[in-house]
Each structure stands twice: as structure tokens, then as C-alpha cells.
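Input record (one chain):
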Amino acid sequence: MKRRLLAAAVLAACLPASDVLAFAQQAASTAQPQTTAGRQQKRRARVAKRFAQRIERVDKNGDGVISRDEWPARRSRAFDRIDTNHDGVVSADELRAVTAARLKHRRRYRR
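The corresponding structure, as predicted from the sequence alone:
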């Protein structure tokens, strides 16, 4: 780390000050928005991947929905609450809706 910093300082000392200043301004103006947007996009992708993995882990027969037989027994009371259209299976959309409502509630009372 110290060697890289020293090398950058030596390189900056060799270049004209106007070039160093222009490079620093360009890096500052372009790096921040791309970094923030890229970070958010990567986070959304990680969350979506984990969500899909959780559904796959519970979905034993691989049909894309979770039936009452596949649902964990210790959470059987939650099945009826999450199955909002009462078709006997919990879809990914129903799980997303419940998760979003829970996060909204948590954020409201966290402040």
C-alpha cells in the first residue's frame, strides 16, 4: 500500500500540475455516480439471488411455488397470512409483498 502511494506521488510530481488536476477532477466527477449506481445494482442482484435461493431451498418439487406440504411446520400459522389469494400455495410475488411490508414496518419504527 505504501509503495503504491509513493509511486503515485512520484508520478504526480513528474507530470505537469495542470494534467494532475484535470485527472483528479475527471476521476472525482465520474467515479462517484458510477460507484453508487453500480453498488446499488450489485446489491439488488445479490438480494434477488438470495431470495430465489431461499425459495428453491423450500420448494422441494421445483414447481416455483411453495405448497403447504413444503412449508416449514414451525411456521404453519404464517402460511395462511402470506397466502393472500388463498389458493393453497405461496408464490414468489406473495413472499415479496410480505417481505416489503415487513421492511416498511421495520423502517417506520426504527427511526
